[in-house]
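Hi X.,

You mentioned you wanted examples for the new student's onboarding notes, showing what a folding record looks like when two proteins sit in one file. Here is a clean example. The first protein comes first, with its sequence line followed by its structure tokens.
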Amino acid sequence: MRVCLTGGAGYIGSHILVGLLEDGHDVLVVDNFANSSPKSLDQVRIITRSSFEVLDQDICNSGVLSEALSSFRPDIVIHCAGLKAVGESQEQPLRYYRTNVEGSISLLEAMDQAGCQRIIFSSSATVYGTPRYLPYDEAHPVAPVNVYGRTKAMIEDIITDWAATDPGRSAALLRYFNPVGAHESGEIGEDPKGIPNNLVPYIADVATGMRTELSIFGNDYDTRDGTGVRDYIHITDLADGHIAAMAFLEGNQGVETFNLGAGEGSSVLEVVKAFSRASNQSISYVIKPRRDGDVSESVANSSKANDVLAWKADRTLEAMCADVWRWRSRYPRGFDG
């Protein structure tokens, strides 16, 4: 199958790319490297011993994107490109709406010109907002509480409306929970620019000595140890979910939404302890006040993906931490060395 993968050099995209190449698909990666490194693609070539096409371009550049897709003629698009920092989205809302929403419209227009009618969208559990019940299932109301989440919800609506105009169109909206881990080879992993926004990369920075301590925001939540609980999914399991969604879309029309999560939560302190065991390093931390907007717990009900896609996240938190430590032990400063 011919696959266009936007954001293919990023953390999630590069792991999806490995899975696609190992399955023998022809791939066009579209990435402007604003939040990623071209070196990740070099590492993917090493892992898979495969080649693929690369377009260094912003998806908002509709003319170039349309020309590229019309030339490549993809059978399906996997759309991972976009800005993803919650705090930054609150500070730069117009930038997030332009990149995420306008870029997605540009992509759908390019797909129309290329005759491509299938898309898998990299969405997020942030679309659910404050939980009305847990675990979240796909029927939970969509009520995002930040700009990033609102862009994801808007794109879901746009794709749904796009698909409704032609019975031959199909889409899978994949709501990720908290991707963690790295490829088992240790050759690719999460490489955030600047100060990490996510927990595990920050813990890894402390373990490698790049930062002195971890800030834990709140230890008075109604959870088993007082710290926030999140559903962590191994990045390889997440990538496998996209491969399963591709197979599903081959035989189905319309739009389906799937949660991709492990179905169980781990607290911040549990993650710290697991990483300390995996790395044999002491992780210093300090407790700070809660952050506005943080919820005490966020856990997925992924039974729909289990049943419909025949997919399940089965890698453990210990495996996630071990794989991150392997990656960061080889590349303490990510793709920069």
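Then the second protein repeats the pattern, sequence line and then tokens:
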Amino acid sequence: MNGAVRRLEVEPRVTLLDGLRDVLDTTGPKKVCDRGACGACTVLEDGQPIYACSRLLIESAGRSITTVEGLGSPEAMHEVQRAFVENDAQQCGYCTPGFVVATAALLARNPAPGEEEIEAGLGGNFCRCGTYMGIRAVVAGPGQAGGDGGGNVGG
């Protein structure tokens, strides 16, 4: 996880999310809906975004897992984390880690995604505070989604 090999002994029914939070004390992925419907628990598995609440931990054995903590730290932020701050793309912050991880995966696939690709890449993550304009400004180019391009990452 996050660049370190971890060996765990857990019951087969433990989800990846519960293992990350309860066993490894990782707090970035959030347990909100616990049904794969909100995206707050989004992590990268071998570079692909997945919902950690919908995956058994044993299914992820031998795979590379990256949480928001693995993307960067407050001292050395990933460009997506920095863009979220610059674009005021968080409010309560509960959904932010999942959005940051999903956005990083989207921009790794395509540094300049179009509207349809943004919708597909971020459509499974929900923000109850409604910070969608700031989030879209992180990935949108100049003139789109109210963004001026100042915080645009990957493009």
